[in-house]
Amino acid sequence: MPAIKKMPQRKCVGCGVSKNKPDLIRVVRSPNNEISIDLKGKKSGRGAYICKNEDCLKKAVKGKKFDKNFDMKVPEDILENLLQQLRESDNPVSADTTGKNKQNLTVL
Ligand SMILES: [Zn+2]
Known about the structure:
Bound molecules: zinc ion
CATH topology: Hypothetical Cytosolic Protein, Chain: A
Order of helices and strands: EEEEEHHH
Strand order of the largest sheet: 4-3-5
Largest sheet: 3 strands, antiparallel
Shape: globular
Number of domains: 1
Number of helices: 3
CATH class: Alpha Beta
Strand content: 15-25%
């Protein structure tokens, strides 16, 4: 008998890999077309998920994955906010002490 509890899986819009929901950040478009970051996963509306890493966000932005998913342009401040969230939750293994820490997404 499978003792492992099945986690709900969601697909990252950046890399396209399905992961456990807690490993992803949800971005949601509310019924009145407001896009926000849904850290608790409880807001209603259409959701898109992204891994908690910058690479996926960059891929998603570059490929306009969010825009396509939501059928509208995602405001830049949302993307920047998202980037901050990713950085906070990421706890990088390799700390950026080499002076190559970019502050902004190059694609923005
Ligand atoms: Zn991803």
